[in-house]
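Section 5.1 Outputs to date
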Amino acid sequence: MTTGKINVSVENIFPLIKKFLYSDHEIFLRELVSNGTDATLKLKHLISIGEAKTEYGNPIIEVKIDKEGKKLHIIDQGLGMTADEVEKYINQVAFSGAEEFLDKYKDSAKDSGIIGHFGLGFYSAFMVAEKVEIITKSYKDEPAAHWTCDGSPEFTLEPADKTSRGTEIILHIAEDSLDFLEESKITELLNKYNKFMPIPIKFGTRSEKIEQKKGEFVDSEDKDEVFKTVEVDNIINNPNPAWTKQPTELSDEDYKSFYRELYPMQFEEPLFNIHLNVDYPFNLTGILYFPKLGSDLQIQKDKIQLYQNQVYVTDNVEGIVPEFLTMLKGVIDSPDIPLNVSRSYLQADGAVKKISNYITKKVADKLKLLFTENREDFEKKWNDIKIVLEYGMLSEPKFYEKSGAFVLYPTVDGKYFTLDELKSTLKDNQTDKDGKLVVLYASNKDAQHSYIASATEKGYEVVLLDSPIISHLIQKLEADNSDLTFVRVDSDHVENLIKKDSDSISKLSDEEKETLKSVVETIVPKANYSVQMEALDSEASPFIITQPEFMRRMKEMSQSGGGGMFGMGNFPEMYNLVVNTNSELATNILNTSDKSHQEHLVKQALDLAKLSQNLLKGEELTAFVKRSFELIK
């Protein structure tokens, strides 16, 4: 038997491992199962190139609980180690980077990707174990070895009587970590970290009904007797998940089935998927799914799982996946992502940026293909995906460049146009006197119904743009299309939305208009309304409330995160009150000598205009209803 001290530059590394990585101590199981997987895959490679003269067989990794003995076993049938290799890899190499690790990464050591990259993966066992044993037999014709360490730098190494190839690690679970002897806890961890590892992982057994062979059952009408119940290995993982296969090997049902495997509690089917598969200039595979998203920006992110060679790492893919796609679901697997570094480094890393750009391009190409192949289906799904695409247009220049081919602008009556199609459709009827194309839009079909009706009566198309970031997007579209302007349908009277050459004639003289304006301004609160006299059609509403496009848009952008926007988010609501000087009511107000009745008419007309804009609420609404009943007594 050999005894000795582990070659470690820090006197006692184990308490430090436990301290720095304690919040993530559950990853010990991931690390140990990963080590077993690596040992098995390396053996497969050595056999394939003729360096290992042994049968590969059908190796598995087994995890066993011995609750009574307070032990957890992780057993593989991989390469195994000789006593010399245990001395080299466990006692020396594992700690070659220990001091550097502690100095450089102690602040970010909670990043679960760090530990394995410094050869410390095996020693994560000491986060939950007071003593660890390794019993290992190499594929080489050499005796088995038994290594024991109690969490101090002292270890023992002696021969073992193990005859089968591979390694068994035995963790003597510490008193503060006894929950890792619970079957439910180990099942949870294996499902979280090892669900798709490439070697089958056995955790206990389960009962399964199998059909009996001929001669094993008596003739019977009872068909149940054709089957017998047997105990089989409980393989907890899927070693060949969908993303490891070629897209040509998978059907639509395969993709949906894998989605259910990823999200067993998600009952809605995904709208469509995007299969990522690239091996140059970096390795990346994965499947992204578009779930139904609607218009809510507060969607739960962190639903994309990041794997490294089929080992789960994190569901925080920020920096790797473009931000606008973090609202999707799915899997990304890449051995080329440097997981052992800080997020700021990751965001500045050139390879990671290339991966992000590739994903952006692949998603844009897929969306264009879906749009081209089945436009009708794409239009049906538009409302469920638009928030992602609109966010992508704002945040990713490369996505914005490609977006014209598939981003849609629906009208209030259910027609869908790309931007180029919209320009072509509106050109004849909605070009103003300055040659600018005016896109009229509504943000709420019900609240803006009367304004939409007025515009459609004039033969105008009204586009429905109702996502919370639309003010930012139309600002960008206008900046990039100098011949285009977006005007919300309630921002002015219909006659003024698209300025033409002709001016209407007013029934009232300039002097009468000024008098009427003064009367209205004394009654209407100046803090909220700017009174304007307009000569409109005599059948048009006498009072119309509009909100100036620029002011409202700036306020919306400020409220949805427009970088301050001069603090406009705190501005009081300002509206234009358009008084139709050609209406009968305008003449009545002007000609009424009874000041009380004049005030009554103005207030009633103002409240009716507010009602049409859904602005009449609370005390004002109560007063309006009372006043209206008095009028019809």
